[in-house]
Amino acid sequence: MSQTLPIDSLKETFLSQLSQQHLVVEAETGSGKSTRLPLWAAEKGRVLVVEPRRVACTSLAEYVAQLAGETLGEGVGYAIRFDNRYTDLSRIVFVTPGVALRWLSEDQLASFDTVIIDEFHERRWDTDLLLALLVKLNRHRLVATSATMDGERLSEYLGAQRLQAKGRTYFVEVTHSASDSRNMPDIRGVEKKVSAAILGVYEQHQDILVFLPGRKEIAQCVSQLKQAFNEQIASGLMDVISLHASVSDEERHRALTESDKQRIILATNVAETSLTIPGVTLIVDTGLERRTHQRNGRTVLGLHAISRASAEQRKGRAGRVSEGDCIRLYGKAAPLERLTPPELHREELVEPMLAAACCGFTFAELKFVDSLPQQTLEKAKDKLLQMRAIDEQGKVTTHGQRLYPLPIDTLFAHLITVMPDKASQEMMVDLSAALSVTQRLWQLPSGEERRELLSKWLPMACDAMTMVKLLREPIPDFLTVDESVLKEAKQLSEQIREALELPQLEVATSIKRENWLQAVMTAAPELVYIRREKRRQALGNGYNEVTVGRDSRFADSAEAAIVFDQFALPGKGIKQTLSLATCMSPVSLEMLSSQGFGEEVQGQSQMTDDQCLVEVQRVYAGRVISSQWQELQGQSARQALLGMILEGAALPGLVDRISADIHQWNLYVALGRYQQEVCSRPATQVDMTEWFSEQLEALGVEAAEDLELFSVDDFPFDGIPDWEREEFDLAYPYQVELTDLTMRIEYHIARKLVTAVHVSGKRKADPKRWELPRWQGWRIQYRKASRTIDIK
């Protein structure tokens, strides 16, 4: 520790206060807080250091071990997924938040005295949850650190003392390349902007670090820079290096180790905090990142402008070992957010809620730095209840305890544990592993010849089968597969297989595809989608809609699928979300029907010589998935026969007569013409469907052959007395027929209005007043289509 760093001024205060209270340490990037504080805290007991990123976790452990003059894995160690180098005697252990949460669920971190949560400003859900759990447990001394965060609010939350180290090791000069001072970060042509920014100044600098939002943009910039600096690269004077979460160890080593060459390192947020990249004197900041946010109740990954806090973090990467420069490709007055919103406000809370329950607490018991959205909390609880992972009180169930240790998405963990046989469970393990890695495992071939080879290799166009086959078998030459991602997926599969005591990957049980998919459909019916009839690229499940992703092999002839993975993007409108189905397994409509998907709906009826048949359709998400004719008996038969009568298919002429009788009776009663002493039925309005239903039941009609025993004369309607009916019909006709014109008459009694509605006839002229009944004292209108006129 020969080099003096700004953080060193806090050592005495830090050590004196650590045993008495929690601490919030604020110090600018490059001050040494990530390396000094763990060593200081180790003087007071065993230390767990939580680093939000894997690359930073391993790199810092290596560096701190070097500072302490120890071999990595002894006094100083680390633990990340798939890799750990520490012992029970290690004084300082660097871990990722996921590892820390799992250790907390096992023994509440009983072997540690101090927990340091580094770079808290990133506001990941796992660090927020970890801090809330540790505050609730109140067994450890807590230290939260960052270069840029709301220290006052955090110190109030923890009841902590706030320590601040002023000054950075070296000065960094900032320039902005935007034409307007208020220009926001812009992705358009970003690789050309980066290249132009570097070309003008690269000779004045040693190494250059460029911040980009993702792997796609990094690849584009690598291509652009290799063209721009082809001569320097070819002569061995320059190196262009990628740095993101899934780079190989060799690539990471090239980025983090000094070199004789001038290096241009193209990085995502992985290089924003904790890492010291030797030799960097120039930062090119695009001002962009990809992060999640909530949109219409769903977690969406979108392109965002960074916060001002992140901009400061990025700038600080150039001031670690010497004075530097930072070129920002956006305006000086761009309206950036002050801090990046916490992930607990941007993502679903299913995994955090289960993690809390497995650590012995419900969300209701925990106090977070920021209160959580109620709607998102309720959705998370509903999902976990459906999985039987928690009970109504939010406590973890035995099933939930089995899900949590599996290092994958909670839904995949649920599917793995409920599979009914070993082959299906192994299939789900391998698919979950392939879908849980940081990047896409393989790319769909673009050439026709390669696609034909793919079809021969796996005839069924099934994304899930393709991914599992890639894990289990040698990779064919015609497929583009990311070897590092494949290695990670295989490691994850082996880890889960070992935990569940399943066979190793190389001796995997043969796939029984239909049995497996039926089990998935039973366990997670919400994953089953069916094509829209008109918009064939869209599929729905009754609640959500997805669009077939361009990298999916889903066949044009397939009508339904289990959608194992989807990628949500912002749509065109403010409230729209576009969900792309990226991993699909086709299933037949017959399978959906046999599994009981959808609801039965009665369609059209028909009557044969000896039976009444009805078409029973099974409808799922608005589409008919099966249809069959069934013979009806009893009440169901009466309903079907009633429908046929009302449609005029049975007892022809009856419905027209009864319709007129009931219409006139209802009008008779409404006009106050009812006379109790001469009318045989009560003075109430009559519904024709109900009346027919009562008649069929009274006559004992239960089948088609029963109806054949009756004629239209067996269905009299005792309404207006016979001696009065003719006179009433003349005064208030139900229908009026003129030469080439038939009209239905509507009576609006409260308004004293009669409307003659065109029914049929080729007559072009409107009816004249003298052609119509008298209707004395009534206003008269004539309506044809959308045109209504008064007749005077």
From TrEMBL:
Q: Which SMART domains match?
A: DEXDc, HA2, HELICc
Q: Does the keyword Cell division apply?
A: no
Domain Helicase ATP-binding stretches: 14-167
Record keywords, A-Z? ATP-binding, Helicase, Hydrolase, Nucleotide-binding
Against InterPro entries, the record matches this protein to: DEAD/DEAH_box_helicase_dom (IPR011545), Helicase-assoc_dom (IPR007502), Helicase_ATP-bd (IPR014001), Helicase_C-like (IPR001650), P-loop_NTPase (IPR027417)
Q: Which PANTHER family match?
A: ATP-DEPENDENT RNA HELICASE HRPB
Q: Which residues form the Helicase C-terminal domain?
A: 193-380
Is Metal-binding tagged as a keyword? Answer: no
Q: Which organism is it from?
A: Photobacterium proteolyticum
What is the protein's name according to its record? DEAD/DEAH box helicase
One MF annotation (Gene Ontology) recorded for this entry: nucleic acid binding
